[in-house]
Amino acid sequence: MSAASAAPGSPSTPTSSVTPPAPAAPATRAEYAVLACAEVWRGAGEVLASPMGTVPSIGARLARLTFSPELLLTDGEALLIGDTPAVGARSEATEGWLPYRQHLALVATGRRHVMMGASQIDRFGNQNISCIGDWSRPARQLLGVRGAPANTVNNPTSYWIPRHSPRTFVERVDMVCGVGYDRAAAAGPSATRFHRLPDVVSDLGVFDFATPDRTMRLRSLHPGVTVEQVRQATGFELVVPARVPFTREPTAAELRLIREVIDPRGLRDREVRA
Q1: What Cα–Cα distance (Å) separates residue 164 from each residue in 61, 184, 206, 210?
Q2: Mean pLDDT, to the nearest integer, of 231-256?
Q3: What average pLDDT score do residues 120-132 get?
Q4: Which key words tag this protein in UniProt (predicted)?
Q5: Is the pLDDT confidence value at 125 over 60?
Q6: Average pLDDT of 125-148?
Q7: Tens-digit pLDDT profile for residues 155-196
Q8: Residue 5, in any domain of the structure
């Protein structure tokens, strides 16, 4: 009997040389954080994403390439881009021009979803990026108030905090830059009309303010993190439900986009340690 006519399974049957692809490596903590940031823009529609930081920038691109294709992105300066380049790469398609004077006008329209950082944040979502210590004689000078008040009063504003610690999640911020729920309520309808803080994402989990008194609640844990770890890393008492789910796992397609298309250089791992 020739090899060509040998019965299947016989020693002379030719075997295939095709090697099946290796399974993708499990998602890292940084990739869970990227996905959690991307979810901030789910269903946002045709609004400008304003991500500040590497992980939020990767997240905004992931959202645009998957479940929020109408999301608008910039090159980080004055151009609206029509493609979705890798983080740090040059765009090849310009859709519009957004000079500084127009950007200031855009802030007041509410047609953005901002994701800012925070040197300090408290239980009501008040954020500080200006100084540490007494504002009249601070121990450390930081960025300054910048656009935080206008962002939070006029646009949905979420936060990304890559190092969750009691130094960042504090009982009371040293200076209010981004406006939290308690101060917006005290200021009245002019401050509360468009004020919304959807999410806070850290390297430990995802948080929101879906509580009766608008204080911060633990919504999900990144895999490998415990509720007790989050409590110990937080300088105020969090609202913790009886059951806290884990943050959604990235799909194989989402992992491929993160690793091969959006962040092939692995910049996300510099912001969130494994």
Answers
A1: 24, 25, 11, 20
A2: 98
A3: 98
A4: Transferase
A5: yes
A6: 93
A7: 999 999 999 999 999 999 999 999 999 999 999 999 999 999
A8: no
CATH number, domain with residue 239: 3.40.1080.10
Instruction: Examine the pLDDT at 3 and tell me if it is beyond 50.
Output: no
Domain-located, residue 8: no
SS (HEC) of the chain = CCHHHCCCCCCCCCCCCCCCCCCCCCCCHHHHHHHHHHHCCCCCCCCEEEECCHHHHHHHHHHHHCCCCCCEEECCCCEEECCCCCCCCCCCCEEEECCHHHHHHHHCCCCEEEEECCCEECCCCCEECCEECCCCCCCEECCCCCCHHHHHHHCEEEEEECCCCCCCECCCCCCCCECCHHHHHHHCHHHHCCCECCCEEECCEEEECCCCCCCCEEEEECCCCCHHHHHHCCCCCCECCCCCCECCCCCHHHHHHHHHHHCCCCCHHHHCCC
Residue ranges making up the domain that contains 113: 27-271
Identify the residue whose tokens are 């881009």: 81
Domains identified in the chain, total number: 1
Asked whether residue 90 is domain-assigned, the answer is yes
